[in-house]
Fold:
Amino acid sequence: MTDPVFVAAVIAACVIVSQWLVDKTPLRHAGVALLVIVVTAAVSNLGVIPTGDNPVYSGIFGYIAPLSIFWLLLGVNLRAVLKAGPQLLFLFLVGALGTALGVALALQLLTDAPFGEQTPAMAGMFTATYIGGSANFNAIALHYDVMKSGPLYAGAMAVDSAITAVWMAVTIALPRWLGGRVGEAMTETGDEDPDREAVAPRDLAVLFTLGLGCAWASGAVAEPLGLPSMLILTVFALILAQVPAVARLRGAKAVGMFAVYVFLAAIGALCDVQALGSLGEVGGRIAVLAVTCVGVHGALSFAAAKVFRLDPALAAIASQANIGGGTTALALARSLGRPDLVLPAVLVGSVGTALGTFVGFLVAAWLAA
Structure:
């Protein structure tokens, strides 16, 4: 079924199921963030909803994901959370270097020009997406007309989505295994869940007015400046968050987290197992490129945390900001019980959005020279 109304209903239902699994079963320690990806991936691969492009997914990536960050940042007190910023930014930049090195290693492992004339573009796309996110991925793809190579582009999208989902699971598990400072994901479970608020219609009206208005304004401001609109939207949210009347608004956390879970569900829905299996040799090459890239990135990120005696949770969140972007990094910080890292996660994710396309183009141009 591809009807947008039906797809949206199933996405919402997957969030309900994931929350129920966390509340009522031993899976509570996995957290809603991971389970919603797994549940939706299972549903989409069973054919209930599409695993390919759909207006619902486009709307989620284009509007719901940025708004989720905006709403959650409205409760942020800058003085309380900026302390973790420098360390997280350092690990983020190490991770970005690891991404570029991983792409270089992958191309050495593969044969010469493994994707033909699109090899520079593919290298640039995966460099960009694993530094910033899908917006950077598509910026490179559009410039090099990779969309015209339908199977190649579809395969790259499928592999990227699958790796993003898997890496979310890895970054949830690794900090606990490595002895990082993590807490219970209280923002996702239990009767004391602070995301469960008594919300008045007026509060929701104000939240949507602020969110949609600032989303429009950020696009209008960012375009002439040549900056990512997500950076401007983050600035707007942080300014508003320091206004007492805005900070007291009820419902921002609940609406924001629901939007995050919807975004993660869309990532899960795009994990097309059948598409990955049908790509044959080309799919294998794409998988080598993506897995090597993320593997080197992850190894360097956690090694840097070890060498400089930094919390593995910081490395995980910085890595997720690279691989999945600010929204998944935010979800990971909350899943690890680290509310102090929510804002730094979003900020470094915004840096990735700004940086990813530039580095991706540099890699592509270097290979094409």
Notes: The CA atoms of residues 150 and 156 lie 10 Å apart. Confidence is low (pLDDT under 50) at residues 186-192.
